[in-house]
Design brief:
Elements (H helix, E strand, L loop, with lengths): L10 H7 L13 H8 L17 H4 L12 E2 L5 E2 L7 E3 L10 E5 L4 E4 L5 E4 L5 E10 L10 E2 L2 E2 L2 E9 L5 H4 L6 E11 L4 H7 L11 E4 L15 E6 L10 E6 L3 E4 H9 L2 E2 L3 E2 L16 E2 L17 H7 L13 H36 L4 H13 L1
Parallel strand pairs: 1-8, 2-18, 11-14, 11-15
Antiparallel strand pairs: 3-6, 4-5, 4-12, 5-7, 6-7, 7-10, 8-9, 10-11, 13-14, 13-18, 16-17
Helix pairs in contact: 1-2
Bound molecules: zinc ion.
Length: 387
């Protein structure tokens, strides 16, 4: 049964809740009310749900635009762009954050509010402040990432939403063409518990009811992302929920992170929307590119994450991951392996060459000295080897 979200939401609510940075909800029981307190009310209330995505555009005109998200990344069709600058993050370590962080079930997603001290300091031509992160997921049978790689879904996807520092906050930036930068990480399933994600997932039961929130201790948010931030896809798109503003510069990391099957099940089965219905399958289907290009910061796009795209399959995912102690992939060791392989290859080739030259010389000498008895000698050697 698809989701049937029936929440009264207006445009400002979405800006605040799906992209809230303007709304640092710590005690609200209703994000809508909270937004209403700081923003002017009056925008028309609209319903939307993931079960009727095709109708979003009737109430939200941007949803039928030509730069919508998510998309399918066709790895054969991406363009390598060596000029794409690496993403550098600052302030992501909130381990000593005294206030804690607000985790919130808004009926559409699980959302963690982030202070604007978290920043993308390079990777774009300006600084972006973080506002929140949230998740998209499916069920045990239906993988729920929003973006797909070569038309394959991952079990889940995390988005860290940032807004351009030239704007006052997320609410203002969300409708500006250069307003938002979202970092997307694909989440697969592995054998090991992910201790970093557990800092969020351990509090799931506290926010199982829609519109409920809780405080969790600060932690290093960087550890929720893949180790290697150098390999990513980049394209321009939109919010993946109404009002679908086409204001997002997307960065999708090639390397993935993983949760244990138990952790993924907790994400898929704990939260509720509308009091009783399970909150899952909260992903929008991939949208058409309409001529947009997808850039890649790396050349080998044949194996996302250094692996085939993660399917909702433990054995497959288990083969994928190279876990560090944090449960985050440690794929940066791969280039060293490549270098070793090349070195051994060269060593082997040189050794083979020397042996071949040596053997040829020996044979030449041998045949010239004992030309007449060559056949006999050769025959005897063969007999010896057979024994
Ligand atoms: Zn999202």
């Amino acid at each position: 049964m698809l989701m049937k979200l029936r929440i009264h939401i207006h445009v400002l609510f979405f800006v605040g809740v799906l992209l809230p940075g303007a709304s640092s909800s710590s005690s609200s029981s209703s994000s809508e009310e909270e937004q209403g307190g700081s923003q002017s009310k009056g925008a028309s209330h609209e319903h939307w749900g993931y079960e009727d995505q095709e109708s979003w555009s009737s109430a939200f005109k941007h949803c039928s635009g030509t730069s919508q998200s998510p998309i399918d990344v066709d790895t054969n069709g991406v363009t390598f762009d060596p000029s794409l600058p690496a993403i550098t993050l600052d302030g992501y370590d909130l381990t000593s954050e005294p206030a804690g962080l607000t985790l919130f079930n808004n009926g559409h997603t699980l959302k963690l509010q982030l202070p604007d001290s978290l920043q993308i300091v390079s990777g774009f031509n300006t600084t972006f402040h973080a506002a929140q992160l949230h998740f998209h997921w499916g069920t045990v049978a239906v993988p729920g990432s929003e973006h797909t790689i070569d038309q394959v879904h991952f079990p889940a996807e995390m988005h860290i939403v940032h807004y351009n520092s030239k704007y006052e906050g997320l609410a203002e930036a969300a409708s500006q063409p250069d307003g938002l930068a979202v970092l997307g990480a694909f989440i697969g399933i592995g054998l090991h518990e992910n201790k970093e994600y557990e800092k969020i997932l351990a509090a799931l039961t506290d926010v199982s009811i829609e519109e409920s929130n809780t405080e969790i201790p600060g932690f290093n948010v960087r550890h929720l992302l893949p180790n290697d931030l150098r390999r990513f896809y980049r394209y321009t798109g939109s919010l993946t929920t109404p009002p679908c503003f086409q204001t997002v510069t997307w960065t999708l990391f090639n390397d993935t992170v993983s949760l244990s099957r138990r952790q993924m099940a907790a994400l898929e089965e704990t939260l509720k929307a509308d009091q009783s219905r399970q909150l899952n399958k909260n992903f929008r289907v991939p949208q058409l590119l309409h001529g947009r290009s997808v850039l890649a910061s790396f050349t080998d796009t044949s194996s996302p994450g250094g692996v085939s795209p993660a399917r909702h399959d433990e054995s497959k995912a288990a083969g994928i991951d190279v876990h560090s102690s944090t449960g985050v992939h440690a794929t940066e060791s791969l280039p060293k392996g490549d270098i070793l392989a090349v070195a051994f290859g060269i060593l082997f080739a040189v050794t083979l060459l020397i042996l071949t030259v040596f053997w040829c010389r020996q044979r030449k000498t041998h045949s010239s000295v004992r030309k007449e008895s060559w056949q006999d000698v050769s025959y005897k050697q063969t007999k010896t080897q057979d024994v």
